[in-house]
Automatic annotation (TrEMBL):
This is Indole-3-glycerol phosphate synthase. Gene3D superfamilies: Aldolase class I. PROSITE patterns: IGPS. It comes from Halosimplex pelagicum. Residues 7-260 form the Indole-3-glycerol phosphate synthase domain. Pathway: Amino-acid biosynthesis; L-tryptophan biosynthesis; L-tryptophan from chorismate: step 4/5. It catalyses: 1-(2-carboxyphenylamino)-1-deoxy-D-ribulose 5-phosphate + H(+) = (1S,2R)-1-C-(indol-3-yl)glycerol 3-phosphate + CO2 + H2O. Its EC number is 4.1.1.48. GO terms for molecular function: indole-3-glycerol-phosphate synthase activity; phosphoribosylanthranilate isomerase activity. CDD domains: IGPS. Keywords: Amino-acid biosynthesis, Aromatic amino acid biosynthesis, Decarboxylase, Lyase, Tryptophan biosynthesis. It is an enzyme of class 4 (lyase). Pfam families: IGPS. Belongs to the TrpC family.
Length: 282
């Protein structure tokens, strides 16, 4: 199935670049990577037990939909996110459009003790061996494309190497495809790859399609504590947040931005309790 006409030009450019990198790696060969992965679901459970919103904070220097660029040391950014309470990290390794690198991921994974997701556009099995990570991203929409490997085959190949796999979807039909391929961790991206527009209602609409035994992650467009609470109320087991934490244009405080989101539920509970106490004394 080809979705060529349904992808925005900026995203088309990213996909084309991913194919070129995949072909280059296949031509040169390379060492086969196997991973002893840190548990992503275990990290989520630990965050819940600690009263934190399970959050994957993303080290994303820039993107086609973001103004500005963060030039800070990626390891320092990652450590700040963990200090702010992130349960896991996502690290961009796509170089041309997001300023990422496999070197940054290697350095970050060596410096932190939380699971690290490799955020890239993997379309061929040869790309699995580019770098060790605890979790690998596979995007259903991209794997609908001609000239890419089959989702189920890639998922199986990644697991055979020890990776956990986050399968990203955007529609109910894509969730069905992810589940049919054997996905156990499913992301719902609120960003429409056709228009690059964000609608948090996407997760609310698509989440009911996932069974309870699937770990469900809300991705993109989560900027405020109210957004975080809305996604959790809609059924998100965890959130993946990049731009609101990195704040590339403003150079914001990454640790504070992370903490604001991971404490959203506890802060809301405290506020509700305070309001109730005030009412009883009126």
């Amino acid at each position: 199935m080809s979705t060529g006409g349904d992808i925005a030009p900026k995203v088309r450019s990213i996909l084309d670049a991913a194919r070129e990198r995949a072909a280059s790696r296949a031509d040169t060969g390379g060492e086969r990577v196997a991973v002893d992965a840190r548990s992503l679901t275990g990290a989520f459970e630990a965050a819940e037990a600690d009263g934190r919103v399970p959050l994957i904070a993303e080290v994303k220097p820039t993107s086609p939909t973001t103004d500005g660029e963060r030039t800070d040391d990626p390891v320092e950014l990652a450590e700040s996110m963990v200090a702010g309470g992130a349960a896991a990290l996502s690290v961009l390794t796509e170089p041309e459009h997001f300023g990422g690198s496999t070197d940054a991921l290697e350095r970050i994974r060596a410096a932190v003790d939380v699971p690290v997701l490799r955020k890239d556009f993997v379309v061929r099995e040869s790309q699995l061996d580019a770098v060790e990570s605890d979790v690998l991203l596979l995007i259903v929409r991209f794997l609908d494309e001609e000239g890419t490997d089959d989702l189920a085959d890639l998922l199986a190949a990644a697991r055979e190497r020890g990776f956990q796999v986050l399968v990203e979807t955007h529609t109910a039909e894509e969730v069905e495809r992810a589940l049919a391929a054997g996905a156990e961790i499913v992301g719902v991206n609120n960003r429409d790859l056709a228009k690059l527009e964000v609608d948090l209602g996407t997760f609310e609409d698509v989440a009911p399609e996932a069974p309870e035994n699937v770990t469900l992650i809300a991705e993109s467009g989560i900027a405020t504590t109210n957004d975080a609470l809305a996604m959790r109320e809609a059924g998100a087991d965890a959130l993946l947040v990049g731009s609101a934490i990195m704040d590339a244009a403003g150079g914001g405080d990454v640790e504070a931005n992370t903490r604001r989101l991971v404490t959203a539920e506890s802060d809301a509970t405290a506020e509700t309790a305070a309001d109730a106490e005030t009412e009883t004394h009126q």
